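Predict fold of Adenylate cyclase; 438 aa.
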Amino acid sequence: MKRMRLVITHYILTKWGRRWKNRTELERWQEKRIRRQVDKVRLHSKFYREQWAGIPSAEWRSFPIIEKSRMMENFDELNTAGITKEQAFAEAYEAENSRDFKPTLQGVTVGLSSGTSGNRGIFLVGEEEQAAWTGTVLAKLLPGGLWKRARIAFFLRANSNLYESVKQGRLQFRYFDLLEPLPQLLARMKEYRPDIWIAPPSMLRLLAEAQHSGSLNLTPRRMIAVAEVLDPLDRQHIEQTFGQKVHQAYQCTEGFLGSTCSHGTLHLNEDIVHIDKEVLDGESRRFVPVVTDFSRTVQPIIRYRLNDILTEAAEPCPCGSLYTAIERIEGRCDDILYLPHVSDGHLVTVFPDFITRAVLAASAEIEHYRAIQHSPQELEISYRTRPGSNEDTERQIADELTRLFNRLSCTPPLLTFSAYSFVPGRLKLRRVERGWKL
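Predicted 3D structure, encoded as tokens:
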């Protein structure tokens, strides 16, 4: 009963209770919350207490920035629940292997990040934090309100008590394991007939293709893309198939960082987190987010640098929200490509979106693609065109990429082409990927 009251409280606060007249008021409110959070974390986390020694809470912006590797190295002393990394990984791996994601450690939900870069992480969420997350997520993403009946289908590699917690009152929730064969997933979808679909874009694309072929024949009330970059090619195909917008939830190990408004614009959840922008390229508005969460205390996230590339919107969203509008989540910093400059050989930055735009500009017949840079001298393009297409697609892609490389004054790599192949499951789809390390 207490937990349900907390869910409803946070739902109401998120939906109607937090209103600021302008951006300045919002930032002042954030500042108070952050200082209060820092004082609390300093008391209960040995790692942060030592990190911040001699630095007043009012100067929290000067705290050292941490990243995933540092967090995992100091996991035992960073979290405030007394859970060791060994215990947490053992619990998480047991859940992964058994596919039973319900057990907790000392009442704390333990989850395992996907580890796209080969460095898997752990997240801990306490019971009260879970209730707060549930209320916030439902307020931001649920169409029709908390008391309207809805059937939610959630597709992901691993389930969690955190995700199961959205099952409230009239809301039904069913987990769809991405490791199950597609025919089995489609059969379960037809039996369940969900209103709200939450899935990685690669899975939503497969559902759209099944709908197009007549093997699904369902219409969702809302589609929410999670876990992968929503590529323009996939967005267009999914939206055309179902005749509605694809919404997004920017959710990761580090928290619930963003969600789309009624206009389909992704906004940072600045009522939950503060985001500093580490600028990558001011002209194109690209930045890396540095996250400070002022609500989580079991595994505090303070001055935490993500590995994501975000592009801020050039204009305010018509919805009028004070929260920062994001044009696109472009991918991971690890997937920025680098090519030698034509004159002196220094490495030129090639953002993933540059490659995406070039490939898509090459041909309207391209249905799927991946670009993998194997070395500074070699770039592989996997693609698939629509049935019956007779275009010289490889030449068109090569021409567009050559124009891009000439514009950037970098030496064109050797291009190789292959047939596109990807099945959603254990791995996330990365349309543009750097397969070598700097």
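DSSP finds 13 helices and 20 strands in the chain.
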